[in-house]
Specification:
The chain is 82% helix and 0% strand. With 109 residues, the protein is an all-alpha fold. The N and C termini lie far apart (71 Å).
């Protein structure tokens, strides 16, 4: 085995990325629920004032986001894996869900 092939193999090992953890995927579902709730609230603003369907959809996404927020921490502790990306995603999802999302449906109604 030459030096060139060992360097090429080492570079290939370092450039490969690992798949995201289960906790990160659950955190992304939390962020998705918050984002969809915000979009549903905006859809309510654009629709007729007597149509309450989009606001009910927005309110339904809130408990799902809470469930995913609870589960991502549980899965990360259960698997004994955490990543910096997962921590930052969790903070961003919490910001969207707790700061942006909570007052929005109340303000719209």
């Amino acid at each position: 085995m030459s030096l060139r092939s060992s360097v090429a193999n080492g570079a290939a090992d370092k450039s490969s990325s690992s798949p995201p953890d289960d906790g990160d995927l659950i955190t992304e579902l939390n962020g998705f629920c918050g984002f969809m709730s915000i979009l549903s609230s905006m859809r309510y603003c654009l629709g007729s004032p007597t149509s309450y369907g989009p606001i009910y959809v927005a309110l339904a996404f809130i408990p799902f986001g809470l469930f995913f927020d609870f589960m991502d921490g549980k899965v990360a502790r259960w698997r004994k894996k955490s990543s910096l990306m997962g921590q930052e995603l969790d903070s961003l999802a919490d910001l969207v869900r707790f700061i942006l999302l909570q007052p929005l449906p109340s303000f719209l109604v």
